[in-house]
Amino acid sequence: MTKATTRKSAVKRPTEADSSSRLIDAQIKKLGDWRGETLARIRALIRQADPDVVEEVKWRKPSNGMLGVPVWEHAGIICTGETYKAAVKLTFARGASLKDPSGLFNASLEGGTRRAIDIHEGTEIDEKAFKALIREAVQFNISAQAARGRK
Known about the structure:
Largest sheet: 5 strands, antiparallel
Structural class: alpha+beta
Mean pLDDT: 87
Number of helices: 4
Radius of gyration: 18 Å
Number of strands: 5
Low-confidence stretches: 1-14
Distance between the termini: 48 Å
Shape: globular
């Protein structure tokens, strides 16, 4: 093997996850206000709670500037992060099945499957409780995936 061949194979090719992370970075930068700061903080907390989390961007369309919706996954969707004029909404795909002893869920409470957390400007996030909720969602996804595999 020549040096040129070795060097060429050592170059890291961008992955889909790298692309999604860059799209989320762009969305945070484009917001440029408290919503971007909040989304960045939430993203950091999710990564701290689950270092194996996978970031995706789904539902890219003209109405959201083709930036899409950030989605955090581990054995299934943990939550999505949408930004609106007055709120950052974190929707947990299986939130109705999760324990929420700190009462973080404050939106979509009537649904049978999902639950959401609406964060408004100036809202303090209980970081410990939020990370516990992320870990709970991951464990729920892993258990559900294992159960599907046994069928």
